[in-house]
Amino acid sequence: MTSLDLRAQKLVICLGPGGVGKTTISAALAVRAATLGCAVDVMTVDPAPRLLDALGLEADSSEPVEVHLDGIRLSRRGGGSNRARLRALRLDPKRTFDSIIARYALSDAARDTILENRIYRNLSGALAGVGDYMAMEKLLELAANPDTDLLVLDTPPATEAIDFLDAPRRLLELLNSRAVSLLGAPAGLFRSQLRVVDVAARAVLAAFDRVTGLNLLSDVQSFVRSFEGMYEGFSVRAARAQDKLRAPDTAIVIVTTAESSRIAQAREFIGALESAGLRISAMVVNRVLAELPDVAQLSSARIAPSLKKKLKRNLADYAALKTREEFSLGALRESLPSGTALMVAPDLGREPRTIADLAEIGRSISDA
Description:
Elements: E1 11-15, H1 22-35, E2 39-44, H2 49-55, E3 65-67, E4 85-90, H3 93-104, H4 108-116, H5 118-123, H6 130-143, E5 150-154, H7 161-165, H8 167-175, H9 178-184, H10 187-192, H11 196-212, H12 216-225, H13 231-245, E6 250-257, H14 260-275, E7 282-288, H15 295-300, H16 305-335, E8 341-346, H17 355-364, E9 366-367
Helix pairs in contact: 1-17, 3-4, 3-6, 6-13, 8-13, 9-12
């Protein structure tokens, strides 16, 4: 792997739609970096059960867990293998949000008010974009560890790359919106400063509470007011996260497959990232077909003519698929921004079940 030097990076962010093996590639890159002598943390999002087993993770592993590298050959170049270690965790947006509240609430009372509020309990794991934003928060926490050489982040699946990268701004926009101001404003302000339509909105919500007995308005107001004094902290950390994304030792990697629909999505990702002023370091095309076998070997093989005929037909079909794949790779190569590496990960032929499988994938990733 020459174009993406993992030992020169502090952060590798893998982006891409669901179903292309992004989580597997993230884990494989982390294992590869560890074999090269780096102390690595990898954070995955909803890994498949087999991948959980390969990394030795439980379903609720929301804090870093040591991954044993037994049987994995480590590089001895420069003696870096003395630092080789790998830790993995599964992003849990709800637990991450809870830990942020516990860490940054202005008082124990404010913390308990938020964590016990039913609006918070229902929405903290369900709001659109919470997973994206919590990945950013966890990124900052893990990146602050001086004992970690490299952090590999598998981002939540998104229809557009900008969903993840823009999450801090979107959350702050929600917290600063007029609706939040309306719900959180003191009662005196409602009487003296709000427009008639705002007073009417409050009256409707109050009437809804009386009819249903849910006390929704008071719960929402309590939830919003309990965040007072914390908004600035969210803003500061969002700015730090944006700086981290643009740091020279951060590599943004888009993962895709060679299908035409996936290639089109990858191009959309590139456009979104460029519009946000972000540099793409590499594009990894996953599950690339193996090279074609030598047809001469088939012709000279001592097998039944009927079987040889079937194999030749299968080989012709495989060649057609390979030609189409190479055409897609060529088109993708021409559309990449200058300086972006195009890399391929050959199809393993099976689901990765062990750390050795991930190491094999990591070693096989190469320039296209």
